Amino acid sequence: MLAWTVPFRDQELARHMFRSISRRSGLGLSLGALVMPGSARAAAPFETPAEILRAFIRLRGALDERVVYWWLDDVRSAIVGTKVYPLFRARVGTFLKVRQLEPDAYAVTFLETSYYVDLKTDQLLTGLKNPVTGAEMEISSVVLGPSTSIMRASGEEAPRRARGGTVTSRSTHGPVTVVGDDVLITEDRFSRIDFPDPATPPYNTSELNVYRGLLTELEDPTAPYVRAWVSYQSVSAFQPRHKMDGVDGHISARAVGAKVPSLEAMPAAWRVIADRQNPDILVDIARALAKAGD
C-alpha cells in the first residue's frame, strides 16, 4: 500500500495519534502507511500551508458560505494520575459558515450546542456526583457562540469573545495522509480564555482533531461541499464547576462525529434534546449565525 504524506514538524505526535485512531476506529492505518514514501495521486493539492488549510476548510465547512452541520458524540472523563473516571456523555451539534477573505485566510462563524447526558440512561443531566471527591457537580446545557474566528495558514487566529472572556487560539494543520481514497488531516489546536476578573484563572485547552474526507471529492476544485468525519480528543484543566478542589488532574474529552448536509440529518438523540432546549436556534440557524456580527 502506497501513501503520500506531507512533511510535518512532529512525526512522533503523528505516530501516536494514528496508532490511537487505528485502534479505536478500525480505519486500518499503519505506521508504515503514514511514513512510507510514494504518491497516491500526483495531483493531490496538499503541498503548501495554504493548500493544506484550504483542504482542511473544505472538510470542516463549505466554500459557498452555506450552513454546515456537524454532530459529535463525546465522552468526558476526569483523569487523576493514571486513573480514568468517566463522567458523562456530550451530544454536540455544531453549525458553521465559512467565508474566504484572502487566498490563505478564512472567516469561520460557528454556533455550538452541547447537551450532557447520563452514560447509562442517556437522560439529560442537571447534576452529577463527582466520582473522585463525592461533591455534587451542577451540570447544564451549553451554547457557545455565535462567534467568528479568522483562520490563516500561519496558524494565528484573531482573538474572539466566548464564555465571558477573550479567546486566543493557535492551530497547526498537518500531516496530510492519503491512503487509497481516504484523506486524513490533523488539526492540533491550543486555546486560552482570559477573563475580566483577575481572580478567575485562565482556561486552557489543547485539542487534537483528525478530519477524514475522500480524495475523489477533494480533487474536484469546483465542489463547494465535500463529506467529512472527525475523531477528536482534548485535554483541559479542572474548573471550579468540576468540584475538584485540591485534586491534581485534568478533564479529557474523546469524540467521533460527522458533517451532514441538513438539520434533518442530525442524530435523532441530539434532535430530541435540541427541540426541547433550544427551539429558537433550530427555527433559523442561518439567522442565529448572523448574530455573530451584532
Question: Would you kindly provide a written description of the structure presented here, covering whatever features stand out?
Answer:
With 294 residues, the protein is of the alpha+beta class. The protein has one domain. Helices cover 19% and strands 44% of the residues. The protein is built from 7 helices and 13 strands. The strands form 2 sheets. Strands 1, 2, 3, 4, 7, 8, 9, 10, 11, 12 and 13 form an 11-stranded antiparallel beta sheet that branches. A hairpin with a 6-residue loop joins strand 5 and strand 6. It is globular and about 55 Å long. The N and C termini lie far apart (51 Å). The N terminus is likely disordered.
Please count the beta strands (DSSP E, at least 2 residues each).
13
Beta-strand portion reads 35-45%
Choose one word for the global shape.
globular
Rg is: 19 Å
Q: Give the count of structural domains.
A: 1
Which regions contain 5 or more consecutive residues with pLDDT less than 50?
1-43
Number of helices: 7
Q: Helix proportion of residues, in percent?
A: 10-25%
Q: If you average the pLDDT, what whole number results?
A: 84
Kindly name the structural category: alpha+beta
Order of helices and strands: EHHHEEEEEEEEEEHEEHHH
Quote the distance from N terminus to C terminus.
51 Å
* Main sheet: strands, sense, barrel: 11 strands, antiparallel
What are the main properties of this structure?
13 strands; 19% helix; disordered N terminus; two-stranded antiparallel sheet; 294 residues; 44% strand; alpha+beta; eleven-stranded antiparallel beta sheet
